[in-house]
Design brief:
The structure is a single chain. The protein is an alpha+beta fold. The protein has one domain. The protein is 21% helix and 49% strand. Strands 3, 4, 5, 6, 8, 9, 10, 12, 13 and 14 form a ten-stranded antiparallel sheet that branches. A hairpin with a 4-residue loop joins β13 and β14. The chain is elongated and about 75 Å long. The two termini are 44 Å apart.
């Protein structure tokens, strides 16, 4: 039986346009800037929610003092049970649409399929959320997150996950167009009675720019396309959905005195006050994403 020729072995497209692929450790060091900003925003939001809860507690006590009976307590218990059931439901993974890796003619362009170059995750919580699960797998092209607030007391959480590839232009300057069509499944809810709750989720592109010594320089693209965003203090709601090809695209100026990490990323935020006898709230967010390819085109 004939042996496989060395010329038939797949060569990473990134390696054809920009020398070696920057190591993942170097890229993730650059992502520390993003993590710092995410942590700063999260802490600010936690403090804002704390002040909001302190101020609304007086109003909540006034409103609920007229109806502290068994029927109201049972209604709150039923809402808590709905929140618990939602938190235990498993999100179905989206179908993975297979794409072919290829190089385009004309303008320099390529479609890169898994395995990708990089994977990254981040999360932050306050008050001990029930779940802050996040994962990314550059080999399979899948990433997921699941966040659920603590049913017993006030809590909040944020999650982010990303898959990325290396890019460095062969020309001195150019215009880079980046696109991807990930498949997504998602589910969210916020149940509440006389207590605030919030949940949101997004997907988008994030592009980090690095100097040739490997130092993070800037993020010229930080795209967050909202999938859902809901805040409530009474009743609340929920929803789920899917999209077999959620179109993402961005365009930026590039030069070969820098190299770039091109990411598809997603994330979400939840906050709620927990469940008590006559009031309470709970919130959750989950998303499963399949990234069949990331395409770049250099003009």
């Amino acid at each position: 039986m004939a042996t496989k020729s060395a010329f038939n072995k797949e060569i990473p497209i990134e390696a054809l346009f920009g020398n070696y692929i920057a190591p993942e450790k170097m890229v993730l060091t650059g992502m520390k800037d993003l993590e710092y900003e995410l942590n700063k925003v999260f802490k600010t939001e936690v403090e804002t929610r704390r002040q909001l809860e302190n101020n609304t507690q007086i109003l909540r006590d006034s409103l609920t003092s007229f109806g502290k009976d068994d029927k109201n307590a049972m209604a709150i218990k039923a809402l808590k049970e709905m929140d618990r059931k939602e938190s235990r439901m498993k999100l179905e993974r989206p179908k993975f649409l297979k794409e072919n890796q290829r190089i385009f003619t004309g303008s320099i362009a390529a479609t890169v399929v898994p395995p990708f170059s990089y994977q990254w995750t981040w999360n932050a919580g306050s008050g001990g959320p029930d779940h802050l699960d996040v994962s990314a797998n550059r080999v399979t092209g899948r990433m997921e997150f699941y966040a659920h607030t603590n049913p017993d007391h006030s809590s909040s959480g944020s999650v982010r996950t990303a898959l990325g590839i290396y890019f460095r232009p062969v020309t001195s300057n150019g215009i880079l167009r980046v696109s991807a069509n990930p498949s997504i499944n998602y589910r969210w809810w916020d149940y509440c009675a006389f207590a605030s709750a919030h949940t949101d989720g997004f997907i988008g592109l994030y592009i980090g720019r690095y100097n040739l010594s490997g130092g993070f320089d800037a993020a010229p693209v930080n795209q967050q396309r909202s999938i859902w965003n809901d805040s409530s203090w009474w009743s609340g709601g929920g929803g789920s959905g899917s999209n077999s090809g959620f179109g993402l695209s961005a365009q930026l100026n590039v030069d070969n005195s820098h190299w770039y990490a091109l990411w598809v990323w997603c994330g979400g935020n939840v906050s709620a006050e927990g469940w008590h006898t006559f009031s309470g709230s709970g919130a959750g967010a989950s998303m499963s994403v399949a990234v069949p390819s990331i395409t770049w085109e250099l003009f």
